């Protein structure tokens, strides 16, 4: 960087194009005017501060720019500094201003944003002493390090402190434990005294729960939900697009890091309006080393989540959420490859959906289905869930257990519901139910994100076991106040939420048993043993469950493959009943 005295200067480039003052001073520091004019043009197109366009497009390094700014303002540049009392997260980061430790040469460090820089330049020579300039990245890292303990505590406990009934942290309540104990005791007594009758009634009651799941699956299969938008989405001008926050939590993801950066760079969205945040754990030394060796592009920030418990993905997301600059926020996983136009489609969908839409769930598509028999069946299952079941639930206005990725939110709504529950291992499903309880609607977003399925049975089993555990945690959390849930969701919504959480686990647990019991009842195994009414009830529920269950197991996958035109996977559909036995083992 060349040095120049602080002198009055014009805001004209070589070709006479007027430059904003926050860019014009850089010409005196050796930056080519043509590059500055290009940044100014992009800023005008996107209606953003010129500095945002300059830095996020990578025209200048952040460190270089802020050193030049410090020289222009006649202020020192601080690459290292200790923070003093009064630092707050996230307020200090948003303000770009932090107090420094007493006794040092400077009182405050500033990292002004694009809108603040023009004002500082207009006051150059008249700025109060005691200020040092630093970069936003250095300031953010210093605040995260200084406020590590309260940040970690808030990320873990904010939801529980605000609404303890909506966080799994408390586990089972005394009332829930008592109800479970009473129910189990009653069933044990009934089986001891009247084993045949108890079995028949248990089969009938569980059959009703499974019939609810069957109904949802069959209704979803008949609900139109194409994989592409029905109507051509509006192509919004760059200046009308909102700032979009993209959060990607990483933990030991070196193997897919390069693929992730390529995917994040393919978005059809102005970089100056992208607020991309990669979140890593403080103890993830391998990931930190990889980021030092291969720094991400200029428009991608790295946030190091302070150590804390539980060390879960939702806790990492809660660390980043307070710093989200976007009106909208989306979550991706490390291995995801979203469609380049997905953010624009989401902007248009939110605008069309109305103010009560708090979330859009995109479609997850497996891109390694050819790896093994397991990935082929997983591909069919994911297509069924994201192309049929979830769109059907959303169209019916029912609670949608969200996927853990490609979930787009209104940022204000996400903050209002206190983000994610770090104590629930399926924080996505929990958040979908919580959004519905608090009055927000989830819509389907017909835009695909490619994702890899586990190709080995061990990895698949660990993933599925975690899902089953999370569904039970979600059910426990939201059954603490059944009257509240029933009032907020209505009867149909309440039953839908119960079916998609508790019903998912129960159907997996009892799938082999229920199939065998249904076949036994149909064969007359219960007739003549208990009584005609109970026998008829067991036989009728068994017949309906068996036939409808077979349809509900096969029709949604067939419809999903039809919508995707994945005819090559049709021969694998008959193996789904065996695949669901594996799901039962996981449960």
Provide key terms for this protein.
single chain; 587 residues; alpha/beta; 8-stranded mixed β-sheet; 3-stranded mixed β-sheet; 21 helices; elongated; disordered N terminus
Commentary on this structure:
There is one protein chain. The protein is elongated. The protein has helices at residues 21-24, 33-46, 50-56, 62-73, 91-95, 114-122, 136-146, 148-162, 174-193, 195-221, 257-265, 285-293, 313-320, 342-353, 373-395, 411-416, 427-437, 457-478, 482-522, 532-564, 576-586, and strands at 97-99, 108-110, 131-133, 244-249, 274-281, 300-305, 328-331, 337-338, 357-366, 407-410, 441-451. Among the domains are: 21-146, no CATH class; 196-222 and 506-586. Strand 1 and strand 2 (108-110) form a beta hairpin. It is α/β, with parallel strands linked by helices and 587 residues long. The chain has an eight-stranded mixed beta sheet, sandwiched between helices. Strands 1-2-3 form a three-stranded mixed beta sheet. Helix 10 (195-221) runs parallel beside helix 20 (532-564), helix 18 packs across helix 19 and helix 19 (482-522) crosses helix 20 (532-564).
Structural class: alpha/beta
Distance between the termini: 62 Å
* Strand percent estimate: 5-15%
Strand tally, please? 11
Based on CA inertia axes, which overall geometry fits? elongated
The oligomeric state is single chain
Biggest sheet overview: 8 strands, mixed
Q: What is the C-alpha radius of gyration, as a whole number of Å?
A: 28 Å
Strand order in space, largest sheet: 6-5-4-7-10-9-11-8
Contiguous runs where pLDDT drops below 50 for at least 5 residues? 1-16, 526-531
What's the helix count?
Answer: 21
Overall residue-averaged pLDDT value: 88
Helix content, binned percent: 40-55%
């Amino acid at each position: 960087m060349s040095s120049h005295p602080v002198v009055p200067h014009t805001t004209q480039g070589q070709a006479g194009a007027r430059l904003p003052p926050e860019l014009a001073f850089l010409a005196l520091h050796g930056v080519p005017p043509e590059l500055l004019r290009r940044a100014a043009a992009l800023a005008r197109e996107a209606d953003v501060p010129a500095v945002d366009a300059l830095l996020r497009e990578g025209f200048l390094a952040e460190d270089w720019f802020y050193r030049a700014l410090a020289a222009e303002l006649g202020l020192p540049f601080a690459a290292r500094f200790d923070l003093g009392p009064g630092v707050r997260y996230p307020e200090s980061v948003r303000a770009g201003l932090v107090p420094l430790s007493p006794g040092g040469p400077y009182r405050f460090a500033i990292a002004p944003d694009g809108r603040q820089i023009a004002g500082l330049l207009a006051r150059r020579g008249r700025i109060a002493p005691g200020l040092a300039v630093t970069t936003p990245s250095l300031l953010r890292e210093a605040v995260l390090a200084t406020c590590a303990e309260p940040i970690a505590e808030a990320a873990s406990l904010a939801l529980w402190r605000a609404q303890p009934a909506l966080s799994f942290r408390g586990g089972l309540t005394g009332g829930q434990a008592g109800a479970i104990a009473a129910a189990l005791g009653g069933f044990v007594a009934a089986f001891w005294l009247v084993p045949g009758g108890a079995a028949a009634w248990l089969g009938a009651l569980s059959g009703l729960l499974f019939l609810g799941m069957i109904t949802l699956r069959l209704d979803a299969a008949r609900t139109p939900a194409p994989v592409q938008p029905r109507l051509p989405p509006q192509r919004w001008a760059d200046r009308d697009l909102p700032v979009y926050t993209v959060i990607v939590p990483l933990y030991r993801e070196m193997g897919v890091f390069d693929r992730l950066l390529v995917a994040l760079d393919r978005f059809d969205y102005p970089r100056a309006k992208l607020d991309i945040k990669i979140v890593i754990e403080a103890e993830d030394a391998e990931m930190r080393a990889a980021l030092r060796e291969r720094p991400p592009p200029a428009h991608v920030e790295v946030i190091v989540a302070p150590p804390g418990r539980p060390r879960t993905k939702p806790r990492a997301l809660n660390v980043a959420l307070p710093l989200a600059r976007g009106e909208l926020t989306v979550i991706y996983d490390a291995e995801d490859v979203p469609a380049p136009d997905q953010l624009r489609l989401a902007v248009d969908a939110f605008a069309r959906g109305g103010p009560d839409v708090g979330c859009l769930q995109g479609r997850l598509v497996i891109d390694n289905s050819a790896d093994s028999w397991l990935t082929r069946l997983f591909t069919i299952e994911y297509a069924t869930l994201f192309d049929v079941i979830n769109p059907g639930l959303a169209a019916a206005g029912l609670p949608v257990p969200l996927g853990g990725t490609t979930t787009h939110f209104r940022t204000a709504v996400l903050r209002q519901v206190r983000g994610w529950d770090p104590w629930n291992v399926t924080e996505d499903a929990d958040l979908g139910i919580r959004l519905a309880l608090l009055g927000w609607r989830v819509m389907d977003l017909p835009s695909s994100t490619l994702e890899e399925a586990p190709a080995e049975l061990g990895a698949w089993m660990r993933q599925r076991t975690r899902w089953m555990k999370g569904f039970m945690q979600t059910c426990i959390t939201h059954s603490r106040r059944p009257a509240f849930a029933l009032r907020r969701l209505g009867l149909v919504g309440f039953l839908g939420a119960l079916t998609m959480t508790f019903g998912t686990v129960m159907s997996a647990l009892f799938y082999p048993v229920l199939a065998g019991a249904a076949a036994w009842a149909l064969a007359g195994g219960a007739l003549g043993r208990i009584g005609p009414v109970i026998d008829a009830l067991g036989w009728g529920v068994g017949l309906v469950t068996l036939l409808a269950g077979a349809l509900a197991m096969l029709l949604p996958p067939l419809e999903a493959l039809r919508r995707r035109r994945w005819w090559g996977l049709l021969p694998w559909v008959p193996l789904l009943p065996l695949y669901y036995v594996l799901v039962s083992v996981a449960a």
